[in-house]
Amino acid sequence: FRLALIQLHVSAVKSENLQRACGLVREASAKGAKLVALPECFNSPYGTQYFKEYAEKIPGESTQKLSEVAKECSIYLIGGRSIPEEDGGKLYNTCTVFGPDGALLAKHRKVHLFDINVPGKIQFKESETLSPGSSFSMFDTPYCKVGLGICYDMRFAEMAQIYGQKGCQLLIYPGAFNMTTGPAHWELLQRGRAVDNQLYVATVSPARDEKASYVAWGHSTVVNPWGEVIAKAGAEETVVYTDIDLKKLAEIRQQIPILSQKRCDLYGVEMKK
């Protein structure tokens, strides 16, 4: 099946972001994409100072638009971090998924908050404004089961292992790595998650905006279960297409059967809730 990753140029005007995102979703559908993903923070600039201003409840303006365009195009639509979600007085970094009938299939709240301090390069603390999610998020399609993470979640190998154990064959991480972590770890982490768990990994970033307060690395990518990069964007706004070949996934797992050769008598990773 064909996967499309929309690397969107995000402005400060929510309505413009939504309109452009929906237009690119329609374009991707017209080119045969069955599953389309938007980047982290596609409807607002990325930064703790913006989260409260742009926050919405779910359902709300942004998710209603996503539901409508998913139904119109009869596709599975992953809404990136569609919005900073407001719920019960707390804010979450939330990704929504809509099916071909427009129904909400999954809602993933970012589990690991991005609190880092790289001296002389970047200091960022999402926990100043956001609360963490506390659950895994998976959804079924006629093609395969898909697992979700958001950006920093990708650094935690245990999360990807759980998804693999639960039958996921594709992991999608909407993300916005920056100009320090992007060149260092963006592709490396994707290839690691893919080859460790013998599944496809896709990441979808906002396009790079050098004038923004937070400059995203871009380079939305798809990696196959052999650890090979099979599709990759540059820094500009674009749509990345790739065909997900589940026959190839099955062949790789048969050739190197690590999943059946794990020493569960010696170690294990478990989902607690």
Q: What does the radius of gyration come to?
A: 17 Å
Distance between the termini: 31 Å
Shape: globular
The CATH architecture can be given as 4-Layer Sandwich
Outline the structure in words.
- Strand 4 (83-87) and strand 5 (90-98) form a beta hairpin.
- It contains six helices and 15 strands.
- The mean pLDDT is 94.
- Helices cover 27% and strands 26% of the residues.
- The two termini are 31 Å apart.
- The radius of gyration is 17 Å and the shape is globular.
- By secondary structure, it is an alpha/beta fold.
- The protein has one domain (2-253): Nitrilase/N-carbamoyl-D-aminoacid amidohydrolase, CATH 3.60.110.
- Its EC number is 3.5.1.3.
- Belongs to the carbon-nitrogen hydrolase superfamily. NIT1/NIT2 family.
List the helices and strands and how they pair.
Elements: E1 2-7, H1 14-30, E2 35-37, H2 48-54, H3 61-73, E3 76-78, E4 83-87, E5 90-98, E6 104-109, E7 115-118, E8 122-125, E9 138-140, E10 145-148, H4 157-165, E11 168-174, H5 181-197, E12 200-204, E13 221-223, E14 229-232, E15 238-243, H6 246-255
Helix pairs in contact: 1-3
